[in-house]
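Hey, I'm writing a tutorial for new members on how sequence and structure tokens pair up, and I'd like a real worked example in the thread rather than a made-up one. If someone can provide the structure for the chain below, I'll link this post from the tutorial.
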Amino acid sequence: MSGHSKWATIKRKKGAKDAARGKLFGKLIRYVEVAARESGGDPDTNPSLATAIAKARAASMPMENITRAIKRGTGELEGVQYEESSYEGYGPGGVAIYVIVLTDNRNRAASDVRSAFQKNNGSLGEPGSVAWKFEMKGVLTIPLEGIEEDDLLETVLDAGAEDVLTEGDLYEVRCEPSDLRAVLSAATEAGFPVESSDTTMIPQQTTPVNEKTALTVLRLVETLEDLDDVQDVYADFDIPEEVMAQLS
């Protein structure tokens, strides 16, 4: 099992705790606002907004909060203007790390990200230094239990999915981001219990790390994820299963 997929599962389990203290809600609200500002407030014609709403609902965000965020994004309500930017660098063991930021203060965000790398044995790189290592994909996760892989394959491949992988106790369905909504609709209409639906950066190859390095890499990733301006952190690590099991 690849470490990045296992880490994504752990983060989903942590989501309820993060939401309780408000941090996750704040990040998701920004995501909704920016998606609405960039391509309009109708999720039927704005796939990015549809994905943002789905993520917010999966975190149990009230629909009224989402609606207000959309209106701020479209200008119907006054709100802060967020800018998206990215940072690239390396963590311990040569692990490639790609950071997505949504901020109303670029200088603050850059300083915080740089500090997180420096304090956790990492280093920032130049733009483009690691982005080429990742590929944006739509991903659905569906529990393995009670589901025949052939039945799932038939449904999602017809809807545009590229592949179905097994990750622990989950199926991971991958597709192009533009096909995510169609694949999700096909899966849910067929009765498959979709656990999560999102777009994410998938590493084309992974970097194996030992137990000692794994802990320092994850400390860096968690530090970055905890920054208010950081929306997403992607890394190409491959961490031993037993180490990931301890963390979960």
